[in-house]
């Protein structure tokens, strides 16, 4: 098996598969950790039990998502060496230290305080517990900081010297390496994406419970909070994405050419191709629906500005157009749909129908997983757009792989696919089960004992027993 | 002392921290089926639920740190032990999610308990075999691994693999002696006694086998004056083993765990005697594999600032969850 396959292609598929699966979990937990910190902070500030209930509701979901993020993340830290050993050897002196900083400043912080966050409320008291929650949230952000710095350096490498042994060596300034040209844009765009992803999950869950029972105060609160995020942050994200795109145009023009479907140069204003079918053999976009000169307007802020196309790039340096063209449109489309939901929610607030407008709730429910689709599509856009290079313009992906036989890479890929689909599908199912239970007063925290009531699936007391979420359940004050 | 030596010790420390800290987590996973379904298993798992994630992070520091400080070693060792690394990672996937999943799905708890044990066992066995594969030698040409993808499978690596399983079981059992009470604790004492015997027998077997793998190893252990220093390692091991058995017989609660950690520390020292100054034995020294000084210095600043903090808040997290697990978990 696998003897006839190309080991390089298998290694690429394996990395794409494991990193895409992994990215889903941090995209959720970065935002959710911050949301939990906000909820606990509001609880401490206002003393209102509803915030504690929501905190406990979401922390059970967070625990499952975080565990999946951890185990899939450890895989990533070894993928560099197992499948991309030449890359590791060559780039290790530059990117290795950044990843070491990620471990030292982020992973330990998250993991060290997670236990207290999940199980420690009654042991350390409210304030220290809140501090632990904040540390976990901070850790998720710091992790994003370092790993996106690494990725950005691979996209826009600067501040290095070439060693005699072919290694990339750090130059005199680490600041230049860490804050490489695409990093600030990528960091802002990705972290906001994580917040929006979480907001739409929270909003979708709130909408689901509002559809079943519009009087559920807890569902109202989470839906309202999520819709504020959508209304305020989606426009910021579209602006940040635009800035990121301009930065990409400056540093990685062929990626933008592929995103735009510009096979040809346009000396006097390039059209914005809304849809079409890119045909790389014929080097044109078939059935294109386009707005004349709009691409030049967006990218150059001038209707008649010339824009170079892929005809200016040697064929063996072009990224694959079809994938990027589509993944980019999916991401942008979802971004505008998010903007639309946010605007709709503002209209609903003005009309005082936020909790009763079922079509809004249905739309929010449909949009609940949209953030995940958008971040994966965005990730594909930026990663495939860097091809055929792993370090942009300097090291080809085909020159970076480990000296492994196709059967070894193929067998491990098959193992990852089977295990990930099995384990993470089940985990996602557990998360959906937790979400299907309505949030209610006296929400139980993360319970870890056979004694006493176990609310493992979050469905006791069930919706029929506790329709308004108003019956207090005694005996678990202070537990999380 | 140059930076490369400092970094060799930092990586060694990270690996050691991982081995002893996740070692007892994995050991509990390995021993899990011998505990009664219900309260005993819940308590065994609760005793590590708040700390396992932090413990596992040392593995990321060991791997990530190796890539950063000794990129050439990382680039050679990982392809050479490829199937073992993949098996370890997948084992850790099952082990890690079982902590959450078993509580989410009582009807399939038996399945996740099995995943917990199987994952722990596979991870432990793989880690031991990776060590064995490293010690028995890796073919490298230029800057790349040049062997085949099953070189790692030999009687020696199976011995180191099983030895690691036994050692982790000892750590897990002595941890549970410390954290459990009553019948469950009595069971943990019995497990600790048996796994201590298995660990020492296998440790002796590996120690006697290793010097005959390679003349260099033999010389490092038995040539004068090395012998005078190196011989302290088995001597101290015998002393610690005596106190371990005595502690178990006297029903001491905390001491057996710390003595087991001491045994692992001596194992690490023995490993140092065999390998120094190579990172890929007989092929690549730590200086061959080292990242440039700028990389080492930049990271050393980070380590100097963060490592004391990490150790402090990790210690605090352990302190928060000190004492017996009790019947209510940690609530």
Automatic annotation (TrEMBL), chain A:
Q: Give the top-rank taxon of the lineage listed in the UniProt record for this protein.
A: Bacteria
Q: Which InterPro entries match?
A: Cyt-d_ubiquinol_oxidase_su_1
Q: Which GO terms describe its molecular function?
A: electron transfer activity; heme binding; metal ion binding; oxidoreductase activity, acting on diphenols and related substances as donors, oxygen as acceptor
Identify its membrane topology class.
Multi-pass membrane protein
User: May I have one GO cellular component term?
Assistant: plasma membrane
Supply the alphabetized keyword list: Cell membrane, Electron transport, Heme, Iron, Membrane, Metal-binding, Transmembrane, Transmembrane helix, Transport
- Region listing for Disordered, in residue ranges: 440-480
Q: What is its main location?
A: membrane
Q: Where are the transmembrane segments?
A: 15-36, 57-78, 98-121, 128-148, 187-211, 223-240, 323-347, 359-380, 408-432
Protein localization: Cell inner membrane; Cell membrane
A GO biological-process term:
aerobic electron transport chain
Identify its protein family: Belongs to the cytochrome ubiquinol oxidase subunit 1 family.
This one is known as Cytochrome ubiquinol oxidase subunit I
- Native species of this protein? Allopontixanthobacter confluentis
UniProtKB/TrEMBL annotation, chain B:
Q: How does it sit in the membrane?
A: Multi-pass membrane protein
Q: Name one Pfam family in it.
A: Cyt_bd_oxida_II
Parts of the chain that traverse the membrane: 6-35, 80-98, 110-135, 155-179, 191-210, 222-245, 257-278, 298-321
Name the source's superkingdom. Answer: Bacteria
Q: What is its main location?
A: membrane
Give the CC-aspect GO terms: cytochrome complex; plasma membrane
Q: In its keyword annotation, does this UniProt entry include Transmembrane?
A: yes
Annotated keywords: Cell membrane, Membrane, Transmembrane, Transmembrane helix
Extract the signal peptide range.
Answer: none
Tell me the InterPro entries matching this sequence.
Answer: Cyt-d_oxidase_su2
Q: Subcellular localization, per the record?
A: Cell membrane
Q: Which GO MF terms does the UniProt record name? A: electron transfer activity; oxidoreductase activity, acting on diphenols and related substances as donors, oxygen as acceptor
One GO term under biological process is: aerobic electron transport chain
Which spans of this chain does the record mark as coiled coil? none
Q: Which family does it belong to?
A: Belongs to the cytochrome ubiquinol oxidase subunit 2 family.
**Protein name, please?**
Cytochrome d ubiquinol oxidase subunit II
């Amino acid at each position: 098996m696998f003897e006839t396959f190309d080991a390089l292609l298998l290694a690429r598929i394996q990395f794409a598969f494991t990193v895409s699966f992994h990215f889903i979990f941090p995209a959720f937990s970065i935002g959710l950790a911050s949301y939990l910190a906000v909820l606990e902070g509001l609880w401490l500030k206002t003393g209102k039990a509803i915030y504690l209930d929501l905190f406990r509701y979401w922390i059970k979901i967070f625990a499952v998502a975080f565990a999946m993020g951890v185990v899939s993340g450890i895989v990533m830290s070894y993928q560099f060496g197992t499948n991309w050993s030449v890359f590791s050897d060559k780039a290790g002196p530059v990117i290795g230290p950044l990843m070491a900083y990620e471990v030292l400043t982020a992973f330990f912080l998250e993991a060290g305080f997670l236990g207290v966050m999940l199980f420690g409320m009654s042991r350390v008291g409210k304030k220290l517990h809140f501090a632990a929650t904040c540390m976990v949230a901070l850790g998720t952000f710091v992790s994003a900081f370092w790993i996106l710095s690494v990725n950005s350096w691979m996209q826009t490498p600067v501040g290095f010297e070439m060693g005699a042994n072919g290694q990339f060596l750090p130059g005199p300034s680490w600041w230049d390496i860490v804050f490489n040209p695409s990093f600030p844009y990528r960091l802002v765009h990705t972290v906001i994406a994580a917040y929006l992803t979480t907001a739409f999950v929270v909003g979708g869950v709130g909408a689901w419970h509002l559809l079943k029972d519009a009087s559920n105060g807890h569902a109202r609160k989470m839906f309202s909070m999520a819709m504020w995020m959508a209304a305020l942050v989606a426009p910021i994200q579209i602006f940040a994405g635009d800035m990121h795109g301009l930065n990409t145009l400056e540093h990685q023009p062929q990626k933008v050419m592929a995103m735009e479907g510009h096979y040809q140069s346009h000396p006097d204003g390039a059209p914005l191709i809304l849809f079409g079918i890119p045909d790389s053999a014929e080097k044109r976009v078939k059935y294109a629906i386009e707005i004349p000169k709009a691409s030049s307007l967006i990218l150059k802020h001038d209707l008649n500005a010339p824009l170079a196309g892929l005809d200016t790039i040697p064929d063996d340096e072009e990224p694959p157009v079809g994938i990027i063209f589509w993944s980019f449109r999916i991401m942008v489309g979802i971004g505008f749909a998010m903007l639309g939901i946010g605007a709709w929610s503002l209209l609903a607030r003005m009309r005082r129908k936020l909790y009763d407008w079922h079509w809004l709730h249905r739309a929010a429910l449909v949009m609940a997983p949209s953030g995940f689709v958008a971040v994966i599509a965005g990730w594909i856009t930026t990663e495939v757009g860097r091809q055929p290079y792993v370090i942009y313009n300097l090291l080809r992906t085909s020159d970076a792989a480990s000296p492994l036989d196709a059967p070894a890479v193929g067998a491990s890929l098959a193992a990852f696919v089977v295990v990930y689909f099995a384990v993470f599908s089940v985990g996602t199912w557990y998360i959906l089960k937790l979400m299907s239970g309505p949030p209610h007063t006296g929400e139980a925290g993360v319970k870890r004992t056979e004694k006493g009531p176990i609310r493992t699936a979050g469905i006791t007391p069930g919706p029929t027993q506790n329709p308004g979420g108003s019956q207090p359940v005694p005996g678990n004050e202070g537990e999380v | 002392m140059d930076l490369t030596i400092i970094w060799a010790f930092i990586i060694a420390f990270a690996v050691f921290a991982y081995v002893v800290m996740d070692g007892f987590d994995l050991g509990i996973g390995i021993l899990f089926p011998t505990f009664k379904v219900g309260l005993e298993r819940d308590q065994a798992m609760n005793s590590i639920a708040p700390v396992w994630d932090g413990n596992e992070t040392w593995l990321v520091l060991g791997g990530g740190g190796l890539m950063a400080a000794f990129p050439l070693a990382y680039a050679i060792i990982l392809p050479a032990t490829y199937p073992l690394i993949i098996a370890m990672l997948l084992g850790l996937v099952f082990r890690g999610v079982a902590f959450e999943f078993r509580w989410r799905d009582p009807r399939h708890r038996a399945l996740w308990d099995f995943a917990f044990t199987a994952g722990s066992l596979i991870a432990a066995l793989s880690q031991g075999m990776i060590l064995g594969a490293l010690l028995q030698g890796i073919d490298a040409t230029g800057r790349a691994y040049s062997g085949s993808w099953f070189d790692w499978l030999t009687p020696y690596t199976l011995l180191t693999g099983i030895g690691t399983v036994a050692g982790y079981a000892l750590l897990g059992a002595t941890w549970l002696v410390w954290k459990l009470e009553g019948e469950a604790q009595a069971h943990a004492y019995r497990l600790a006694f048996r796994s201590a015997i298995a660990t020492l027998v296998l440790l002796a077997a590996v120690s006697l086998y290793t010097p005959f793998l390679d003349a260099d190893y033999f010389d490092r252990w038995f040539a004068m004056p090395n012998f005078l220093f190196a011989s302290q390692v088995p001597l101290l091991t015998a002393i610690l083993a005596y106190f371990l058995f005595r502690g178990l017989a006297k029903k001491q609660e905390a001491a057996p765990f710390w003595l087991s950690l001491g045994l692992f520390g001596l194992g690490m020292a023995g490993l140092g005697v065999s390998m120094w100054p190579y990172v890929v034995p007989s092929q690549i020294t730590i200086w061959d594999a080292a990242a440039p000084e700028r990389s080492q210095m930049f990271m050393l600043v980070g380590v100097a600032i963060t490592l004391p903090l990490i150790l402090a808040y990790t210690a605090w997290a352990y302190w928060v969850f000190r004492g017996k697990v009790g019947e209510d978990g940690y609530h």
